[in-house]
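Hi support team,

I've been running sequence recovery on a batch of backbones for a student project. Most finish fine, but this one hangs at about 90% for roughly twenty minutes before it completes. I'm not sure whether the input is malformed or the queue is just slow. I've pasted the structure tokens below so you can try to reproduce it. Let me know if you need the job ID as well.

Thanks,
M.K.
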């Protein structure tokens, strides 16, 4: 193997190669490197979107929620206790979910209001991460306060301390609507997750929500936070079998699961593109080696007459073609890894200086392009690049090994 590798290196440095052959050889290396770099960046972006979904978006949305069919739950504490006894449930907290309209002179805007207990909410939600200390303290101490998303606050042109009038729909026992109830609140704080939830949600105190909805009980739903968000369907069903309340079962894969499925679909497509792009780039290795074999017929014949076996000749040309793939894959993985690490900062700079909005926050669950580099993806890209490079060398190397010494010397 060491002799084959040495011969391959000398063939690569040989001055007998034409400029055209050098160009073809270099283009195969560049193609493999470029393909590796692009695919590492794309896979890192998909990883970033999945991490943002898990850590940011789903930190504000309930993983599982049991909501009363009508009115309030009879005993939300019992539901919470049953849920927290499950090993997959991290915590449970009461909530009242309301649909509201924000009334301003000449306009209305829709808003989902979640009435919460701040002390319990921080156990099941990441809301605290997106609120400043001062705003959170103000919200905790203001019974009629509301936490409003940054996007909605900007649309309404309100700030901390401003008054808001909410119109809360009221249901009769028959299920028909009656005149909505006006709820006067004051903006106690602003939360900013950096996505569409900033335009859709607001938070008030549990007592204020109970009064606005005119509930007899303390809460209309119980929200669960799970250790593993992807176990939501199974855990929701297992806990529901123990709960005696009549309630709707909501879990995030039914309402927001399309986001996760879209990410996985794009990731699968990226893996297919990985193989196809690197396979196309490796075709240049085939053409390069075919021309090298034609040019090196005399050298091959001399090696054979000196006792070189066909296996040695084949290994030599496999090494020569594989070196193109190895060099291209190493360079591509290094460049791709660097781009994946610094891509969020680069895109943020472009957004700041060029005023580009790549992901409008009112439309997407995050407002920036995330990137999470995983060594698994780098290793996969490098391995596939190396494998396709080696496979591309097999036919030209076999042709070289089959060359008869007399034919090679005659061609010289």
């Amino acid at each position: 193997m060491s002799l084959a590798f040495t011969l391959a290196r000398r063939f690569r440095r040989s001055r007998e190669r034409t400029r055209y052959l050098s160009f073809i050889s270099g283009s195969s290396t560049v193609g493999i490197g470029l393909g590796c770099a692009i695919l590492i960046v794309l896979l890192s972006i998909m990883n970033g979107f999945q991490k943002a979904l898990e850590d940011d978006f789903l930190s504000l949305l309930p993983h599982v929620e049991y909501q009363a069919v009508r009115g309030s739950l009879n005993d939300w504490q019992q539901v919470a206790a049953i849920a927290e006894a499950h090993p997959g449930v991290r915590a449970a907290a009461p909530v009242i979910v309301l649909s509201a309209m924000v009334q301003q002179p000449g306009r209305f805007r829709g808003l989902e209001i979640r009435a919460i207990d701040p002390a319990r909410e921080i156990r099941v939600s990441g809301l605290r991460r997106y609120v400043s200390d001062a705003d959170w303290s103000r919200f905790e101490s203001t019974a009629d306060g509301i936490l409003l998303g940054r996007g909605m606050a900007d649309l309404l042109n309100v700030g901390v301390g401003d008054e808001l009038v909410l119109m809360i729909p009221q249901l009769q026992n028959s299920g028909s609507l009656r005149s909505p109830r006006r709820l006067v609140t004051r903006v106690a704080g602003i939360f900013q997750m950096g996505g569409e939830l900033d335009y859709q949600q607001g938070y008030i105190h549990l007592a204020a929500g109970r009064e606005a909805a005119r509930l007899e009980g303390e809460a209309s739903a119980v929200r669960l936070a799970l250790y593993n968000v992807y176990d939501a369907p199974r855990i929701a069903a297992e806990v529901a079998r123990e709960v005696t309340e009549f309630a709707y079962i909501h879990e995030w894969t039914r309402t927001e699961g399309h986001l996760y499925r879209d990410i996985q679909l794009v990731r699968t497509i990226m893996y297919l593109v990985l193989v196809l792009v690197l396979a196309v780039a490796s075709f240049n290795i085939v053409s390069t080696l075919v021309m090298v074999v034609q040019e090196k017929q005399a050298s091959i014949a001399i090696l054979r007459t000196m006792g070189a076996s066909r296996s040695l000749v084949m290994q030599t040309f496999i090494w020569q073609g594989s070196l193109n793939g190895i060099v291209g894959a190493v360079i591509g993985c290094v460049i791709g890894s660097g781009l994946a690490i610094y891509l969020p900062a680069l895109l943020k700079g472009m957004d700041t200086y060029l005023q580009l909005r790549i992901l409008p926050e009112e439309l997407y669950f995050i407002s920036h392009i995330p990137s999470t580099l995983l060594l698994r993806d780098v290793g996969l890209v490098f391995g596939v690049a190396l494998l396709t490079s080696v496979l591309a060398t097999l036919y030209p190397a076999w042709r070289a090994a089959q060359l008869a010494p007399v034919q090679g010397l005659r061609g010289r």
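--
Follow-up from support: It reproduced on our side and the slowdown came from queue contention, not your input. Strands lie at 64-68, 89-104, 107-116, 145-149, 163-171, 177-191, 201-205, 221-226, 247-251. No action needed from you.
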